[in-house]
Amino acid sequence: MTKYPHLLAPLDLGFTQLQSRVLMGSMHTGLEEEKGGFEKLAAFYALRAKGGVGLIVTGGIAPNFRGRLAPNGCQLSFPWQVKKHRTITDAVHKEGGKIALQILHAGRYGYHPFNVSASKIKAPISPFKPKAMSERQIINTIKDFANSAKLAKKAGYDGVEIMGSEGYLINQFICARTNQRSDGWGGGYQNRIKFPLEIVKKTRAAVGDDFIIVFRLSMLDLVEKGSTYDEVVTLAKALEQAGVTILNTGIGWHEARVPTIATSVPRAAFAWVTEKIKQHVSIPMVAVNRINTPDVAENILRSGQADMVSMARPLLADPMFVEKAKNNQAALINTCIGCNQACLDHVFKQQRASCLVNPQACYETELTFEKDSSSKAIAVVGAGPAGLAFSCYAAERGHSVTIYDQGSQIGGQFNYAKQIPGKEEFYETLRYFANRIKQLNIKVELETKVDAPMLAGLNADEVVIATGISPRTPPIEGIEHDKVYNYLDVLRDHKEVGERVAIIGAGGIGFDVAEFLVEQKPSLSTNVGRWLDNWGIDSSMAEAGGLKEHNNHPALRKVYLCQRKASKVGKNLGKTTGWIHRETLKKNQVEMLAGVEYKKVDDQGLHISVNGEDSILEVDHVVVCAGQEPLRTLHDDLTALGVNSHLIGGADVAAELDAKRAIRQGAELAALI
């Protein structure tokens, strides 16, 4: 008997039925614009349908040229474009799934000079100022939405999702923030919501009654001059009357300065928003954001907060999420850690999306792990992300794998990352690997230090070196002083750290150590109420946009975060999450210094020079986070003995503890070996 009866219950929509309560949220993958990308998308979506998803929603497809996200963005406006979409819908239906096309008009978020909006107000996240739409353009755009939906139905889609949230065009009409029109499409709220309502009405008329229309409604804008609670309720009711089948929740505009999906956001942090609106409508409603385990999803559905749950990145991480929940194998789900590193960060850099913990995502036809008829004996040294990923994929192919690690537990650098406030999800990746190792009968020898002669004596068919990195020690006078630690002293050995600290190095590790030292315990990411208050989110929804005044909490320590480069501190952090880390440190009064020349460390503290001005940071401790060196001695020793070995992960390239690259490199080697 399943532990998740609500999650796995079918949803009857009258004219059709969904196989589970899981909606796969829209994600732009980049395949939409790649040559041959639709065949790859077909494999990507078909696997999720096979895994038990109730309704898949595609990445955003524009209804016309001006609505594209980028100049080469995908649109569905003409009959000749239908055929390639059939590739996707046929593949999904073959696996018993259902799929809806998301129709998205970017409005002022369009990254091109042809973008348009309700008013001529530039978005802070696009360099292009939009033109205000004429009434003729508005009417034609409404027709274009309906036309796209009609073509989608012809292409075999089971429905469409009309994107009315996240600050895109429809949202821009709804809110006074971006709609300063004085005609019948602006001014009072009833005028401002005419645009979405006319789109829904025309779409319903174009597709008939036996077609799913999902409307993604922005229920919590998280920007100034956003919608009020009463306004959201008014629109929700009107959308139901206009013919919407399902209401999907939208949280926050892309320009909002509040995190909504990063790993530091508590699980199900916004389910209460859906619950508040749900009492006013009778059509199914979908809860969204940071729902990444079957237990979290089941709790939302069982408590009546929503009728469905939307999961986007969790289905990148594990396409068989629903099927594993059905089989009571939640421990074997490869959980999304909300890092954004291979999904959103890639998309915003015009790269193909994938997943840090699942490099096969969006590469289903290219990165494959077929069984190897000649099973090999493989020795893997190092149980960090690279070694674990390689071992699991290699064992999946039928090889006999033994992992050696001198530590007392698997995980390598992940064991330090998981301690950072807001990065507790890293525990899930280690749980997944631990259970996968057992399932695949991989032998693990912990607290075992190996050398080249021992490995050579194993007569293994292949040896893989994934020994990781060691912290780099910069040549600074006094670096051997007792008050100087490296980051492993703090995160691994938990050495006592004083109240005043200087951190040398402001890369990812420097930021992690700073957050570790200043963030309150227990972590805000484990308490929704405290987290909402910390980010100034009004859970009563009394204020427009859902924002309220908030005060920073007292800092636990005085921390200086220093870097040699004169550029902005944290400039090279994740594209979609770097600002969150900078804002978190700012809230904790961390002083970020760029262009720092390190003079020496002595009893007084850290002597520095910035722009030619000397000063002393009078600190109790200095923590060095100045990069890493690859631990590749074992590889070199094996080479000297004439034994060939493969080098992966940090031992190959000691970048910023790059788990994304390490796991992908392990997977790619396993596919070839």
TrEMBL record:
Tell me if Flavoprotein is a UniProt keyword of this record.
Answer: yes
Leader sequence segment:
none
Q: List the Gene3D superfamilies.
A: Aldolase class I, FAD/NAD(P)-binding domain, NAD(P)-binding Rossmann-like Domain
Domain of life, source organism: Bacteria
- Cofactor or coenzyme needed: FMN; [4Fe-4S] cluster
Q: Which UniProt keywords apply?
A: Flavoprotein, FMN, Iron, Iron-sulfur, Metal-binding, Oxidoreductase
Its GO biological process annotations read:
fatty acid beta-oxidation, unsaturated, even number, reductase/isomerase pathway
- Entry GO MF terms: 2,4-dienoyl-CoA reductase (NADPH) activity; FMN binding; iron-sulfur cluster binding; metal ion binding
Q: Kind of enzyme, top EC level?
A: oxidoreductase
* Residue stretches making up the FAD/NAD(P)-binding domain: 377-641
- What InterPro entries has UniProt attached to this entry? Aldolase_TIM, FAD/NAD-bd_sf, FAD/NAD-binding_dom, NADH:flavin_oxidoreductase, OxRdtase_FMN_N
CDD domains (UniProt xref)? DCR_FMN
Tell me which EC number(s) this protein carries: 1.3.1.34
Q: Which SUPFAM superfamilies match?
A: FAD/NAD(P)-binding domain, FMN-linked oxidoreductases, Nucleotide-binding domain
NADH:flavin oxidoreductase/NADH oxidase N-terminal domain: residues covered: 7-329
Family, per entry: In the N-terminal section; belongs to the NADH:flavin oxidoreductase/NADH oxidase family.
Name listed for the protein in its UniProt record? 2,4-dienoyl-CoA reductase
Organism field:
Agarivorans albus MKT 106
